[in-house]
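Hey, can you fold this?
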Amino acid sequence: MLPQLAEFTVPRLTFTGALDILAVAFLIYELLLIVRGTRAAHILGGIGTLAFIYAVAVFAHLEALRSLLAYLVPYFPIAVIILFQSEIRRTLARLGRKNIFGGGYRRPESTDELLLAMKVMAQERCGALIILERDIGLRTFIESGVRLDAEISRDLLLSIFRPGTALHDGAVIIRKDRISAAACFLPLSTNPSLSGKLGTRHRAALGITEETDCLSLIVSEETGWMSVAAFGEIERHLNAEQMDERISKHFGVGPYKSQRPEEPVSLNREKDAGVFHE
């Protein structure tokens, strides 16, 4: 026994071996990032528990239990694909949205109009959800709403999100500096770690960013606070300048300060004109 242990030597670490270890470590790290804080973590825990029980059954010669678990093993790959379909889709989307060559982004020309509209809606506490497309196409979600293909303007955005209108509910999707569609349906985030205070609008904003590389701009109907969501994370209680910085950062450009003067606008133009309704 001792001579055999004495003959054991640690394999020499080569460049290829080191690269192999780093690649495996990176994949494990990405897997942990994907399942962290999601129901997939609990599912993985259950799979790990079954694997441990199977090992105990083999070691303790529990043939009935081992045979039962061995019979279920061939169906595990299918079960994993079904249970982790959203996580697998998110992983492939994350790999596909990597900008290998860098650059290629610019600050959307419509940012000024967006910020002016959002500032007015925040003052009036008018709920809004605006999605800015980047690399991954949002055609599936665009087709779920009302196609517009309109030029972006503050007045149009205020009209769309005016309470009581047909397009108020749902999201506006902006594609190539144009309002592609309104009243779009988005997937809701199922992340259990989210605050219970987040409503459907905020969960939809997070859900679409978990599957694509878009940027979600939110105005809370209850508080009037502006928020931004990207890559499954949300930043709340932002002002117009901070929103501008997040938009510029998301599209790969430095902070930009608009030179356009702000115009005092109200969502309720009838009240400004002296016309009041009950």
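Oh, and this one too while you're at it.
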Amino acid sequence: MSYDILESDFNKKLSTAYQLSILIGVDSLVYFAFDTNNNNVLLLRAIPYTQSPTAEGFSLTEELKKIFAREDLLNYLFRRVKITMPDVQPVLVPARLYNEYEKTTYFTELMTHGKVETIQNDEVEELALQILYPTDSGLINVLKKQFPTAKFYNNTTPFLLGCRKILKEETPQNIHVHFTQKSIYICLFEKKNLLFSNSFKYQTAGDVLYYILLTYNQHNLVPAQHSLFISGQILSNAEIFKTLFRYISELKFVAFPSFLNFSRKFNEVPAHFFFDLYSLALCK
């Protein structure tokens, strides 16, 4: 699925006033820019890779190099560049327990991956959290060469900050799920306080239903009474959505976030599709 929206207000001579946000997906790169002076959204482009990720010889770094070479807009100088890294499961550590020199230990004790060479951490002050995740040094090098001042984040970081920003405080508990092509991210807030966050790989609608109902059950939430807020790569005609609808009373797609200003041109894009990309605006 590709999108190409460019507002007439976009001015390459003023790009140093813009934030560029990039989502490195499984089969495409999506980038987005807004003016930091007024939060007006200026462009959104989704660019499929030339090869399928399952194809023999597929190289993510080579795909990105091709995109950088042909996308003029990605070669402008931006005020800020923020990038979400490919889909990897993070470890969340309360800030009060975090020790920079022990981050490899936190990760290896809680995760089942093999040897981890590089671990990145996102500090989320609003939630008093450190979010740890493995990174590919080769990929980081390619990205830093193209965007020397870029900051990198795990998908969980903008997702949690975005959910906290849009939640309805009059609702005691707010449960959200975000879909990527291979994973779901689930979080539960009580007012502004994060009670639960986790991510899970899935293959079937049954997998998704299991993890979501498990979250409801573990926190004594009743599917017939508590709405589920949804964002990411899913539509209402998908089998996953239809399955969830049979068990949960109300499914709500999130709207375009109010902390950014979208024009009518963006009506062609489902508002919930790139919630994590938009929420990079909240990351420090």
